[in-house]
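Attaching the record inline, Q. Sequence:
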Amino acid sequence: MDFSKINVSADGKTLCEVYDVDNLVIPEGVTKIEKCAASQRSIVSVEIPDSVEEIGKEAFRICRDLQRVTIGAGVKKMGAEAFAGCGSLNSVTIKEGVKLIGESAFWKDAALEQIALPDSLTKISKAAFQSTSLTALRIPANVKSIGADAFNVRKKEGKTGPSVLTTVEFAPGCKLTTIEESAFKDASIETLVLPDKLQTLGDGAFAGCTSLKSVHIPAGLTSMGYKPFDGCTALTTITIDPANPAFVLQDGKLFTKDLKKQVI
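Structure, as predicted:
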């Protein structure tokens, strides 16, 4: 690594600024990457060591040449849009130990088609992967919340219609309790088995999933926002855990327990 290409604080703990460099290897011992430290720089790859605990807001935003990122196990805080607008980014490795993916972290990274989320992950923030090209997902067991628009990914054709996301799988024993509004909007999934511990489903969480044919409602799901399955025109099979206290099936449709409101 050419250290003339980076500006590190006197104590070696803060990466203050990065200049144009093909392969950025951040020195071990750095614990914080400053806000906008490498924003709009010409960088091809970034390796963030395990010593880094915080990635600042917009730290690598609009690095148009950036293709590969490795995020070290020590990251505890990830600022909004940390890697947003990196249109060439197609390889992201998040090491085991990372618990949070920040708001809009990979927003508009259109070349990103796949990612392996670590089992240590507990929170996926708002718009984390919005407008990427992810085709398949496995949500790890320790994830407790998925933010609004988190996986509202790129459409197959133009700005409307189904998205490229065809598979969503929740790991066995998933601790997920909250899926916020439009989190999986327009996904091209066909079946959906929501995790047992899920409690809240936000407005339009799966709206526009026109390929969705079946959904299972778990026992713990007691709160649904406005039209969580709006526009799911192929949805013909709804099943519900008998222990669910809030909803009931009536003539193949899902209602609140008192039958006053149709949910699906």
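The first strand starts at residue 6 and ends at 8. The chain has a mean pLDDT of 95.

More tomorrow.
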